[in-house]
Amino acid sequence: MTDTIKKQEQALREALPDYLNGHASADQASRIAAKLEQDPAWAADAAWMGDIRSAIEQEAASLDASAGLAELQRRLEQEKPAWWRRLLQRFSLPSLPRLAPLAITALASICIIQAWLLWQVQGTANEQMQWRSVPGTEAPVANLRVQFKPDTSISQMEAALELAHAGIVTGPLPGHIYLLDGLDAAAALQSLKNSGVVDEAALIEAPGAQ
Amino acid sequence: MSALPVNPAELLAAMASGDQRALDALYRAWSPRVRVFARLQLNACGLDAHAIADEVTIDVFHDVWRAPMRYDGRVAFGTWLLTLARNKAIDQIRRHGKRVAHEESIDSEGYDQSRLEQAEHDPGPQTARESVQRRQAVLDCLRRLRNPLQRESLTLWAIDDLSIADIAQIQQAPEGTVKTRLFHGRLNLRQCIERWFVQEGGRHD
Q1: Which residues of B touch A (CB under 8 A)?
Q2: Which of A112, A146, A179, B145 gets the most CB atoms within 10 Å of its CB?
Q3: A41-58: per-residue pLDDT in tens?
Q4: Where are the alpha helices (DSSP H) in B42-125?
Q5: Are residues B92 and B173 in the same domain?
Q6: For A105-116, what is each residue's pLDDT tens digit?
Q7: Buried b (16+ CB within 10 A) or exposed e, B179-204
Q8: What span, in angstroms and rounded, lies between the C-alpha atoms of A206 and A209?
Q9: Do B158 and A52 touch (CB under 8 A)?
């Protein structure tokens, strides 16, 4: 019990420097303030720390900074400013308006380069399409427009197309519509209508045909 | 010409843009504390301690000028600055060696007699003389503390109202250790001062 009290007292005493510098917690501060009022040993300890602080403060106050400052300035005059400081000095805020033409030119250059790059990409894509096409052949032309029933399976579609001798040119378009190239458009149309998997089917007139 | 700020962080920002007046202001405000701290740290360098401490002080502010934005505000400015000073002082101690570290100790009777005699003969009221004597005695006893870390803890505590946590950060030690250093440091210092007063009382009687 006595040991515990002694330890608490010692811990509190070790917090005295923080109390005197204004860093003690509220709880510690109130307990230390009470101790200082009641216990002369504590008051003497605090006064002693005050003497130490006072001696050091007075010593610091007695020192003249002029000589050291002169020496520091002499050193600075001899050395070249750091690159970042030269840069900051050169481009400090008041000089920013002078940089405006430079900034605008730089931004315009970036825009031009970006546009040129985009144009290059588009050109490249067209070239790839041409390269993929088989030389000497033309893309098939659709002569049938067919709307399959929504529940038609792929295999049913394949069977109907095979039977009609037609191939898909493009599709599916919205509404299950396909454009087809039939070997014999009229026969293919009839075959598809009879297949039972088509809702609507019609011939597409060839461009320019009257 | 605009007025200079007094906040260290603002002075550092001004220094970053090349304002030497900010460096002057910072130096005038903080160099005395750095110098006193360095002097007490460099006690082991003997007669050259003051000159080396002045060099350390200039080095510290030179470094601050070269890279003011190294201070990131995570600790108090004083803590940061005194940490720089401490590192430089330790470098100097290593360079110069503890050639006179053992010449003086807290047990020696070799107080700074010249300064004490000067204080004794100073004109003015007796109380002022006693105050100067006491101050010199405290500083001399502080220099003679055997444990340099106790001396450093007490100096840091007194020099910038640093908390125990701040001192622990500078010394890179647990707070409990700093508390112990402060406690035993002031006990040892007090014993030294009591001996000093006994000696001085005997001289005056």
Answers
A1: 16-18, 20, 23-24, 27-28, 31-33, 35-36, 54, 57-58, 61-62, 65-67, 134-135, 138-139, 142, 154-155, 157-159, 161-165, 179-180, 182-183, 186, 189-190
A2: A146
A3: 999 999 989 999 999 998
A4: 49-66, 77-96, 113-121
A5: no
A6: 899 999 999 988
A7: bbbbbebbebbbebbebbeeebeeee
A8: 5
A9: yes
How many residues are present in chain A?
210
CATH number, domain containing residue B91: 1.10.1740.10
What pTM does this model have?
A: 0.62
Distance CA B12, CA B71 (A): 8
Are the Cβ atoms of A17 and B157 closer than 8 angstroms? yes
What residue has token string 């045909």? Answer: A209
Q: Which residues of B touch A58 (CB under 8 A)?
A: 135
Its CATH architecture, for the domain A144-203, is: 2-Layer Sandwich (3.30)
pLDDT (mean) for B112-140: 63
Please name every residue paired with A83 in a beta bridge, in sequence order, or none if there are none. Answer: none
Q: What's the rounded Cα separation, in Å, for the pair B190 and B200?
A: 15
Q: Which residues pair with A167 in a beta bridge?
A: A181
One domain for residues B44 and B121: no
